Amino acid sequence: MIREMAHITVKPGTQADFEAGVRQALPLFHRARGCKRVELHHIIENPQQYVLMVYWETLDDHMVHFRQSEDFQAWRGLVGGFFEKAPEVVHSEVTIEE
Amino acid sequence: MIREMAHITVKPGTQADFEAGVRQALPLFHRARGCKRVELHHIIENPQQYVLMVYWETLDDHMVHFRQSEDFQAWRGLVGGFFEKAPEVVHSEVTIEE
């Protein structure tokens, strides 16, 4: 299991629209191969910043299967217009949890 | 409930020592007021980078009660020597999870 962490900065004043877009896009993630969970984190210190955290079974489930799907285009269609700049995306493995 | 996200870059080659320090420090977090869970995320794209994610009941539990405690000094004593630079710490509220 890996986690995608997409650091997203939205244009000022678009937070509610962006969050509505994420909610609308949830079915796209939940039907994606290997997608287990979606969390949207809103950064307290900077209200224009979010971290979208998506739990995937494998890196390829995100970077190959989802990224090359029509659902990825649909996702970007729903929320991409609110992005202030390109998201910064990394992936992590949880090495300690307790 | 809020989440602390501490973006930590460690010195090259210190990953195993840093992770051992985090494991050793877990009791410090678990006895801290309002601390519910600790996760250490290792960034796949850059093995020197981690995100320490700590679940706190309130922002003050982290920023006031823990930061001003002796246990915070003990935590930094266990892992601070492995930091390449000062961690970047933000907090988030989860607005969507499914």
Description:
Two copies of one chain form a homodimer. The first copy, chain A, has 98 residues and is of the alpha+beta class. The first copy, chain A, has a single domain (2-49, 62-92), classed as Alpha-Beta Plaits (2-Layer Sandwich), CATH 3.30.70.100. Helices cover 35% and strands 36% of the residues of chain A. The first copy, chain A, is built from three helices and four strands, in the order E-H-E-E-H-H-E. Chain A has helices at residues 15-30, 59-66, 70-79; strands at 2-9, 35-43, 49-56, 88-97. Chain A has a four-stranded antiparallel beta sheet with strand order 2-3-1-4. In chain A, strand 2 and strand 3 (49-56) form a beta hairpin. In chain A, helix 1 runs antiparallel to helix 3. The longest helix of chain A has 16 residues, at 15-30. The first copy, chain A, is globular and about 35 Å long. At the A-B interface, strand 1, helix 1, strand 2 and strand 4 of A face strand 1, helix 1, strand 2 and strand 4 of B. Strand 2 of chain A pairs antiparallel with strand 4 (88-97) of chain B.
Explain briefly what this protein structure is.
By secondary structure, chain A is of the alpha+beta class.
List the helices and strands and how they pair.
2 copies of one chain form a homodimer.
Chain A (H helix, E strand, L loop, with lengths): L1 E8 L5 H16 L4 E9 L5 E8 L2 H8 L3 H10 L8 E10 L1
Antiparallel strand pairs in A: 1-3, 1-4, 2-3
Helix pairs in contact in A: 1-3
